[in-house]
Amino acid sequence: MINDPIHGGALDQIRHRFPQAPSPWLDLSTGINPWPYPHTEWPAAALTHLPTATMTEACRSAMADAWQCDPSCVLPVPGSELAIRLLPQLLNIGTIAVPHPIYGDHLSVWRDAGRKVIPMTDPSQIPSDAQALVLCNPNNPDGRLWSFNTLKAFHGEMLRRGGWLILDEAYGELLNGDGITPDAGADGLIILRSFGKFYGLAGLRLGALLGPQSILKPAKQALGVWPISGPALTIGTRAYQDKDWQDATRMRLATARQALDAALAALGLATITGTDLFRYVHIESAHQVWEKLCAQGVYVRRFADQPDHLRIGLPETERDQDRLVGALKLSLSA
Ligand SMILES: Cc1ncc(COP(=O)(O)O)c(C=O)c1O
User: Fold this and answer.
1) In a domain, 2, yes or no
2) 3 part of a folded domain
3) Of the candidates 241, 267, 299, which is a domain's last residue?
4) Measuring CA to CA, which of 170, 214, 230, 317 is 20 to 30 A from 249?
5) Minimum-distance ligand 1 atom for the alpha carbon of 194
6) Which of 225, 241, 257 is the last residue of a domain?
7) What does the pLDDT read at residue 190?
8) Does residue 139's CB lie within 6 angstroms of at least one atom of ligand 1?
9) Residue 148 and residue 170 in one domain
10) Nearest 5°: CA angle at 135, between 14 and 214?
11) Burial code of 8-28, b = ≥16 C-beta within 10 A, e = fewer?
12) Pocket perturbation via mutation, ligand 1, pick of 194, 206, 223 by most ligand atoms within 8 A of CB
């Protein structure tokens, strides 16, 4: 029975479970960019004053400009996880369809709220009683992509039922403008965005909820007056405006992802999907391989319900990648 922390990045707990593992650990358990946005300075007032409406507006505009949507449809939030958690409170629906595999919180928050969750393997067959459909684009952990036209069709179908398409675009920066954010504000459509992944600053806690006013108004009410810190608003505004960094980062991630795939393929691990921020690798006995990797101080992500896959984040350096490959080689052969 696997009893891992429910999210990646829990190195403190994993270290505790494997006290003999060599230090420092190599943490590849998340899909967070290992080369974070570098311009992270902020004026003293961002800490000594309360965050102002002007700062929030600037961040909201920068987000809306990056996602090509109307700023009035964007609500900055302190990380998209909190927005996911708010959804059962915002949507008065009884039954929700959630594909498998997907980011686990999309199942747990609805179940914990006492709603009926219908797990699906094929999201194109939306169950007839579903009042909402959750999708993650690109999907975590397998990287599955939904085309703009397919998403439009799903949204149309849910709208026809008086329901909702909930689209988690936590990794949406990798879509490079091919997402559905220009439709934000339409009835029946909720989009979630995360700052932490692509910009590599997950600890800053910033994200956004995009939707019609009927959703944003109660969400704003629930979050209170100063939900996002001054440093997060300052750095987020700058990063969302920095198109040059965004373009260069997309290229850098794609190059690193190709190098990682080549290294994994050389080990005989050729069935690989995922995104440019994490790889989803088919590995026999993945749970046991995970244990062996941990014993060598290498922390990747395994999933209790997926015994034949591991998710591996991008190593920051060639040395880290060599260490991953060496540890995998030993773990696969042992
Ligand atoms: C698909 C997906 N959605 C949402 C989140 C929550 O991220 P955050 O709260 O940092 O924005 C994560 C984090 O791993 C994720 O993978």
Assistant:
1) no
2) no
3) 241
4) 230
5) 11
6) 241
7) 98
8) no
9) yes
10) 110
11) bbbbeebbeebeebeeebbbb
12) 194
Residues 324 and 200 in one domain: no
For residues 111 and 256, state if they share a domain: no
254 and 131 assigned to the same domain: no
Does residue 83's CB lie within 6 angstroms of at least one atom of ligand 1? no
* 42, two tokens: 């902020």
Q: What is the pLDDT of residues 162-206, one digit of tens each?
A: 999 999 999 999 997 778 999 999 999 999 999 999 999 999 999
Domain, as residue range, for 104: 45-241
Task: For the full predicted model, state whether its pTM sits above 0.90.
Answer: yes
Q: Which pLDDT belongs to residue 28?
A: 98
Residue-wise pLDDT tens digits, 301-327: 999 999 999 999 999 999 999 999 999
- Asked if 152 and 224 sit in the same domain, the reply is yes
| Residue 226 and residue 211 share a domain | yes
Q: Mind listing the pLDDT tens digit for each residue in 273-308?
A: 999 999 999 999 999 999 999 999 999 999 999 999
For 46-58, give the secondary structure using H, E and C.
Answer: HHHCCCCHHHHHH
Instruction: Check which CATH number belongs to the domain holding 78 and give it.
Output: 3.40.640.10
Return the structure tokens found at 254.
Answer: 């794609």
User: Closest residue (by CA) to atom 2 of ligand 1?
Assistant: 170
Distance between CA 45 and CA 50 in Å, rounded? 8
Helix/strand/coil for 221: helix
